[in-house]
Amino acid sequence: MRINFGMGRMRPVQKNLRRAALALALPLLVLGAVAGYAPRAEAASFQAWVESFWPTARAAGIRRDVYERAFRGLTPDPEVIEAANYQPEYKRPVGEYIDRAVSDKRLETGQRVLVEYKPLLDAVENRYGVDRHIVVAIWAIESNYGENPGDDNVIRSLATLAYRNTKAKFARQQLIAALKILQRGDIDLAHMNGSWAGAMGHTQFIPTTYEAYAVDFDGDGRRNIWGSLPDALGSTAHYLKVSGWRPGETWGYEVQVPRGFNTKAYGLKSYKTLAQWQRMGVRRVSGAPFPRPNDKAGMFAPEGTNGPIFLVINNFRSILRYNQAPSYALAVGHLADRLMGYGEFAHPWPTDENHLSLDQRKELQARLLNGGFLDGDVDGVIGPATLSAVKAYQRQKGLAVDGYPTLTLLKMLRADST
Asked: From residue 194, how far is each of 142, 178, 214, 226 by CA, in Å?
């Protein structure tokens, strides 16, 4: 595009104004050209990647018609890359994660689920030997009892990761498995949705886990973890069983340690028998003896001696195979215990400048809500809405804007209301 600013002589002021106009116009023209070019270039590059991946899919037994149907009209999903590279603004402490996973609402729903689906849970427990409370706890934490199973196109998500070389080895493996699921007809393309990482269904199986461990529990001839709750819960129990679950045993014990005990010297793989731990002065908080002294246990003390400490045994390790985060396994185990009727941990999680208790987090949210900074529920969950509200408050007060809900910030909010 050519821009003609005239060829006549100009006064200095006019010349400077037109130079300024040109300086402003040229970047806009370049940006406009780039904006039109970038999507086309991205689409062409992605299609080239799709064709380059075809030999791998063909070697894995994928038919060309299935492959073309799966990728027809697909473009990379930028939100997938954002999620994969996401660095949390607020690193959630384990105590807060547990509070969120084992909320009052989740417990209430879980109790109702245990009654409503008792015949199904009876059947699942009888077949696989996995405690129903554990299965229900996983269902709760993975998708909030099926309410949030994910709505991303699994093929698009995994292809985006592989194309952009983000977690590419994982994504390529999962993409092949996902294509096999489509080819077999277990689910159609329109309903094959899940998380940004390709986790699917009520209990969030990634495609390779689905291929290896999903079961047709309802007997209709296909494995349907998306729409069949029997298949989803049965598959979860089956996966835990093959992961070494031991029927009739718990996942671990909250313990107390003797004065001066160095929890940092031990970890999840510091295997000792419970009898050996006991000889070191480690005791159950209930005072009861360990039921199987020869069980091998590791120690999980995420807050050192400032918070709850646990000796975790075989079934904790089985849950870790479902999700490798120890905080996740602890949340599943504790939610299951609470659903059985057991109480909260004997030792509270620490509270300090950067660790607010559940009540303190609720108070912070309530004060942000009253101040017009927050629009939402007071639930103690420090999510994106609360972080944004904290930032807005910090800006108004001229503070450093980092989004951290600290004890100092809570004290400032209290002072504002007096």
From this structure: 11, 11, 16, 9
DSSP reduced 3-state for 311: strand
Is 80 exceeded by the pLDDT of residue 3?
no
Q: How far apart are CA 112 and CA 345, in angstroms?
A: 23
Amino acid type, 64: R
What backbone phi and psi angles, to 5 degrees, belong to 254? -75, 135
Give the predicted TM-score (pTM) of the model. Answer: 0.82
Report pLDDT for 383.
Answer: 79
Run of H or E residues at 390: helix 384-397
Determine the topology of domain 358-416 in CATH.
Answer: Muramoyl-pentapeptide Carboxypeptidase; domain 1 (1.10.101)
**In contact, 48 and 157? CB cutoff 8 Å:** no
pLDDT tens across 49-72, in order? 999 999 999 999 999 999 999 999
Contacts of 71 (CB under 8 A, 6+ apart): 50, 155, 159
- The C-alpha atoms of residue 207 and residue 197 are separated, in whole angstroms, by 10
In 3D, which of 355, 352, 392, 389 has the Cα closest to residue 374? 389
Query: 239-255, pLDDT tens digit by residue?
Result: 999 999 999 999 999 99
Number of CB atoms found within 10 A of residue 17's CB: 12
Mean of all residue pLDDT scores within the chain: 89
Beta 152-153 vs 193-194: how paired, if at all? Answer: antiparallel
Please give the angle made by the CA atoms of 118, 124 and 125, to the nearest 5 degrees: 85
Domain ranges of the chain: 358-416
